[in-house]
Amino acid sequence: MHHSGPDRRRAAWQVAWRATLLGVALSLLGGCAQLGYYGQSLSGHLSLVRAAKPVDEWLAQPDLDPSLRRQLALTVSLREFASAQLGLPDNDSYRRYADLKRGAAVWNVVATPELSLQLRTWCYPIMGCAGYRGYFKPEAAQAMAAELRSQGLEPYVYGVPAYSSLGWSNWLGGDPLLNTFIQYPEGQLARMLFHELAHQVAYASDDTTFNESFATAVEQLGVARWLATRPDALKEDEQARVRQDQVQVLLRTGREQLQSVFQSTASDDEKRAAKAEVFVRLRRDYEVLKRDQWGGDTRYDRWIAGLNTAALAIQGSYTDLVPDFIRLFERQGQDWPRFYAEVRRLAALPREARRAELAQGVVATSEVRSDRVDAPTPN
């Protein structure tokens, strides 16, 4: 819907009024120590909403940058595909665009104990508990990291190009497309949209790995279907996908080695030394991979250099359960609504029961139909 004149002003007042009500609700749910955090979260999200305007309004501008025009037009097709072919929500999210004039939507802080891969968690109204804490200003994220470091934890701060409000902000205009990811190559842009929309389908309030792995499975299955009929984009995507998978293998190996170190009976000093060696080995293997197979591609250099235990832990949350979700999709006959219904059922279970059923392949719904076509090979 387009707003102009009084309609646009009325829409702006509605956004402000709804935001005020949300702020009151948050103040009732949190103590004084949390109000500052909730305040920056609310104002930061509202700044995104207010900066965004419908994609068709951007496309109507005759002087719009051609590359931005191309990418925005692509998102229209991706958004339609997401709802029509993947069963993802057909709502206001990702139908508006905002240029934030910065390189990240938010900055996340994650942390682990020095000798553990267990993420520290924070609990919030609406979304429950998660293994990260997001800030709309990098200085605030770094301040939080310093506080965690003073508590003996090992923090990691990273910029996030997009995040999901889990659908609750659709009444404020929906989660917008952002300059932080709009220029991604086609396959990567598709992954971003499918992943974030998946968070609006199912969400376990106490299980970051379940939530992120589910969204990653949806993005992998979805982008395979999208690219299956777009050979040029598929070819462009293949190299980046292969290299990303190779990096994930290195990270998974590093996590497994660290887990073995942390669970051993060695002394803490011995564990610290072994931990340092794991990171030396990981970076060395990366340099060999880059030199021997990538022709010197440096795109991951800065990220690999900054890795620590917390960074490895949060990366694992995006991938560890993906194979289980893909198998679940197959057991549901590659039927998106049935798959989502089963994931929602699992999300409502206690965490241990949820994980056990997902790992064991328990199917609580009716028998899988046999008339489904095979899904393309996932990423």
UniProtKB/TrEMBL annotation:
This is Aminopeptidase. Keywords: Aminopeptidase, Hydrolase, Protease. Pfam families: Aminopep. InterPro entries: Aminopept. The keyword Hydrolase applies. GO terms for molecular function: aminopeptidase activity. It comes from Roseateles amylovorans. It comes from the Bacteria.
